Amino acid sequence: MPLHNSSTSSSTNLNEIISFKGWPNLTWFITEHLTKPPKDWIINELPRSTYETTPAYIEYTSVKDGSIVGVTVNYEQLFVHTQTLINACKYSSTDICLCCVDFKRQIGLWHTIHANILSGMQVVFIPTSILKSQPSSWLISITKYHITTSIVRSRDMHWAVLAMREASNLSSTINLSSLRLLLISDGSNPWSLTAVDTFLSTFVSRGLRNDCCCPCSYSSETLTLSIRRQYHTSSSVHQSGRGILSMHALSYGVVRVDQDNSLTSLTIQDVGHVLPGAIIGIVKIDGPPLLCQTDEIGEVVISSKATPNNYWSLPGLSTNTFKVIPLGSDERPIGTQEFVRSGLLGFLGPGGLLFVTGSREGLMQIAGRKHNSDDLIATALAVEPMKVVYRARIVIFSIRVLRDERIIIVAEQRPDISEDECFQWMSRVLQAIDSIHQVGVYCLALCPANTLPKVNQNLKDTTNI
């Protein structure tokens, strides 16, 4: 497996064992001294039943109550899903991939380790510590190594744009013409759209292709649901979609088009088409898994040979998540095929494009209406975010009070902010949430700097930026 690490120097001796800084201890197997196998050698294949049931690895995730569960991925699912990603992204041995996300889990693991081994492409890893100290380092690497594919977060794109604006002399040396695919790992978050648009408008003059950005949707239970794929033939058209929806209608689980630049609207982008060989559906969030109408928001479910089928040693919880049979309007099963709940909320748009509006984990139901915590966080941060609180140091959740859920907001204030400024900011936040979301806040609390616990659940990273 060809690997490069931007924080280490290359080896000058072919027989030298390279130690990667910050990596765990690795066991290297030297095979040069072994004799070549005979021409009539064949592999001893495992029995089919063993291939389908033996776990290849377990990916840990958390459910809404905070419990940790392990999603079991067997060898067949690992191979099928990896092969599907290679076909969808058109990976080959001539590709050089740049990874700016965690390569040990989720999208980083599938694209830069599994797909890397199967396709033979090269991978350049940039640690998070380097990205924080040098936000433009991944752009420089694309120019230097002629990177063809890159996996980033919208936050990396945002800070790269700011770094380029501060260092105007560095912008002239950036050339992104070699980049054919820019995979956005958190593209299912509707609030990543602003960073994507800003990045495109900034670097289109530096050779960046207009159809380069490819958002995708992923969950630990279903692995990759969808990805925006590129079409290389001249007769094909790059398909992408965008919608401006009313947040008031979304709180009732209904899709309604709103006016552009409205304070009560939510602009979302598609996350592409479902992966080949998979069937996708939208079921109601509460109650039996009834199929939603075309204008309803529901939970995305998927059926594929590449999806896991259980939580490790949790048969009861696995049945509710991995063995869902959607029901028709007559409340009868539409078939015998089992689907897997993704935990993502959304709808199918024109042309089969998937749109994600939020996650089930961040969903709060207050007075019969549903609100997503990410939407409320975005509204709170829009009120002078860089002046009073840290952008990534705020959390919104709900607690049950008098048979109904109530919204709690906890944010970490900056150390040089006075109490009067904090009080004014809190008043504006309460007014903004009330006017935009038509919902009240039960408690808004500010805590001193460096006191809010750091967590990293699924793709949510609340580390201090």
Name the descriptors.
465 residues; Rossmann fold; GMP Synthetase, Chain A, domain 3; Luciferase, domain 3; globular; 4-stranded antiparallel sheet; 8-stranded mixed sheet; disordered C terminus; 3 domains; disordered N terminus; alpha/beta
Q: What is the molecular shape? A: globular
Corresponding CATH architecture of the largest domain: 3-Layer(aba) Sandwich
Mean pLDDT: 84
CA(first)-CA(last) distance: 33 Å
Which regions are unreliable across 5 or more consecutive residues at pLDDT < 50? 1-12, 232-237, 456-465
Number of strands: 23
Give the radius of gyration.
24 Å
**Individual helix count:** 13
CATH homologous superfamily grouping of the largest domain:
ANL, N-terminal domain
Strand percentage? 25-35%
Largest sheet: 8 strands, mixed
CATH class categorisation of the largest domain = Alpha Beta
Total discrete domains:
3
Structure, described:
- This protein has 465 residues and is an alpha/beta fold.
- The protein has three domains: 3-44 and 90-220, 3-Layer(aba) Sandwich (Rossmann fold); 242-359, Luciferase, domain 3 (Roll), CATH 2.30.38.10; 363-461, GMP Synthetase, Chain A, domain 3.
- The protein contains 13 helices and 23 strands.
- The protein has an eight-stranded mixed sheet with strand order 1-5-4-6-7-8-9-12, with helices on both faces. It has a four-stranded antiparallel sheet with strand order 13-14-15-16.
- A hairpin with a 5-residue loop joins strand 2 and strand 3.
- The longest helix has 19 residues, at 419-437.
